[in-house]
Specification:
4-stranded antiparallel β-sheet; 140 residues; alpha+beta
């Protein structure tokens, strides 16, 4: 049986409120982020996001080495203490690292696309200059 564990954390990262979704199943750890806006999100807005717009959340996948530890049953009181600590602490470091990694990957892809476009533009300009030179040398 496959168990999927997920959590939602709302944080204020000035000037925006962000919803950070964490999802674990088998040996996979995924993190997704949605920007909610500048004003504090209402409970019905969060509920609508989770129920109706779940398909819009883009998750970033990462393999998880702690998969066997997650399957172990946790005492309910300990679970409450862990939940209280996570609320006080905020977003887990693992989620922050995964989101930062996702941002870096997007940046490098964007850089590669821009560089390829720039190089293609330069090649086209060079070919046009060469064609112009040949046209000049042909004479009338």
């Amino acid at each position: 049986m496959l168990t999927i564990k997920s959590s939602l954390t709302i944080i204020f990262d000035p000037p925006f409120y962000k919803a950070i979704f964490e999802r674990r199943y088998a040996s996979v750890y995924e993190v997704g982020q949605v920007t909610l806006g500048t004003s504090e999100p209402k409970l019905n807005c969060i509920y609508t996001l989770v129920t109706n717009h779940w398909s819009r959340v883009v998750f970033f996948r990462q393999s998880d080495s702690n998969a066997l530890v997650l399957e172990k049953r946790i005492n309910p009181k300990r679970l409450q203490r862990l939940a209280r600590k996570s609320v006080e602490k905020g977003v887990s470091t693992k989620a922050q690292l995964a989101l930062q990694k996702q941002i870096e990957i997007r940046k490098t892809k964007k850089k590669q696309i821009k560089q390829a476009g720039r190089e293609a533009k330069e090649v086209l300009a060079f070919e046009m200059r060469q064609a112009k030179k040949k046209q000049k040398h042909k004479g009338h």
